UniProtKB/TrEMBL annotation:
Keyword Transport on entry: no
Gene Ontology MF term list: hydroxymethylglutaryl-CoA lyase activity; metal ion binding
Pathway where this protein functions: Metabolic intermediate metabolism; (S)-3-hydroxy-3-methylglutaryl-CoA degradation; acetoacetate from (S)-3-hydroxy-3-methylglutaryl-CoA: step 1/1
Keyword Transcription regulation on entry: no
Root EC class: lyase
Keywords for the protein's UniProt record, in alphabetical order: Lyase, Metal-binding
Protein name listed in UniProt: hydroxymethylglutaryl-CoA lyase
E.C. no: 4.1.3.4
Domain Pyruvate carboxyltransferase positions: 31-338
Domain of life where this protein originates: Eukaryota
Length: 369
């Protein structure tokens, strides 16, 4: 009986004094934020946004402490007209990179070889030299820097991103091909990117729910895709909850499945949309599983033209505020980031979806009053 009472007493104490979760440790207290606002955030906006506004957005974001910014995409303007002037943004960043105290990695999404050709054509025109190829960039998350243009702190880097999806229906709608065909399309892109010294990021869309096949996407299919992309040469996999259907249990199951498939945590980024208000919850679950790279968009910009009903990305301000409250470091100045969120929301005539951003701006105004 005494052992029984001892067990009951232990249970009561555990309930009364729960162990505090520790997200920050000496080895893993830095979280890398990949700002996707200029591309994923703006691509679904209906009104045409001037290229000068897009360039100013990138410039402003570069002053906040962010070290990775997705600046545009080389996709068909027929399908994504908002991204039609990405080559001008690339040319500007090559000619006049923002003056920052640290190097920045700029990412460029492309769907096929033609997109790569367009990217390299713009690159060669401004930074190619004899070969037309840049110096190899650093690995994601590393402190190394490389490239041909940059601020006084070192050279900026540019890398490309490709994308497929975890369901056949979404892949057909998004890229007009099967999953297997999308992987075949990537092979020459990977080969030429490696020859050019470019890192390649690979997105897996609808990993936690599909608008056409429903909310229960098989996590083993996501893991198989991730393994295939890494074996093909991808440097990082961004696992995307494109629809925002993800929940804490489903996120945990997916991450356990990815780990069981042998995929290392430092090869992964998580990309959450906030359609059902679960993005921060899912981010915390991901933190508990050791993920330290997250995609987000300033002011919660975003949506997906091929995912009906999906709302914006998790707001960068909300994510940074949450991580800082846990003792984690991002290197991002929340006040500067909040100012950018308010500015771009006004510029494009939409509401600011970041609660932390709006609260921070209220505090800034209070101090200035």
């Amino acid at each position: 009986m005494s052992s029984r009472f001892a067990c009951l007493r232990t249970a009561r104490l555990a309930a009364r004094y729960p162990l505090r979760r520790r997200y920050a440790t000496a080895a893993s207290d830095f979280v890398r934020i990949v700002e996707v606002g200029p591309r994923d955030g703006l691509q679904n906006e209906k009104q045409s946004i001037p290229v000068a506004t897009k360039i100013e957005l990138v410039n402003k974001l570069a002053q906040t402490g962010l070290k990775t910014i997705e600046a545009g995409s080389f996709v068909s303007p027929k399908w994504t007209p908002q991204m039609a002037n990405s080559s001008q943004i690339l040319e500007y960043l090559l000619e006049t990179p923002p003056a920052t105290p640290h190097p920045i990695t700029y990412q460029w999404l492309l769907p096929n070889v033609k997109g790569l050709d367009n990217f390299l054509s713009a690159w060669q025109a401004k930074a190619g030299g004899d070969s037309g190829y840049p110096t190899p960039p650093p690995s994601p998350g590393s402190g190394a820097t490389s490239g041909t243009n940059g601020s006084g702190a070192g050279a900026n880097a540019h890398e490309i991103s490709i994308f497929t999806a975890a369901t056949e229906a979404f892949t057909q709608k998004n890229t007009n091909c099967s999953i297997a065909e999308s992987l075949q399309r990537f092979e020459p892109i990977m080969a030429r990117a490696k020859e050019a010294g470019l890192n390649v990021r690979a997105y897996i869309s609808v990993a936690l729910g599909c608008p056409y096949e429903g909310p229960n996407v098989d996590p083993h299919k996501v893991a198989e895709l991730a393994v295939s992309l890494l074996e093909m040469g991808a440097d990082e996999i961004s696992v995307a909850d494109t629809t925002g259907m993800g929940t804490a249990p489903k996120t945990a199951e997916l991450l356990k499945t990815l780990s069981a498939a042998g995929i290392e945590k430092n090869d992964l980024a998580l990309h959450f949309h906030d359609t059902y208000g679960q993005a921060l919850v899912n981010s915390l679950v991901s933190l508990e599983h050791g993920i330290r790279t997250f995609d987000s968009a300033v002011a919660g910009l975003g949506g997906c033209p091929f995912s009906p009903g999906a709302t914006g990305n998790v707001a960068s301000e909300d994510l940074v505020h949450c991580f800082h409250s846990l003792g984690l470091k991002t290197g991002v100045d929340i006040e500067k980031l909040s100012e950018v969120g308010e500015w771009i929301s006004y510029e494009i005539g939409r509401s600011n979806e970041s609660r932390a951003g709006k609260a921070t701006m209220a505090q800034i105004r209070k101090k200035a009053a």
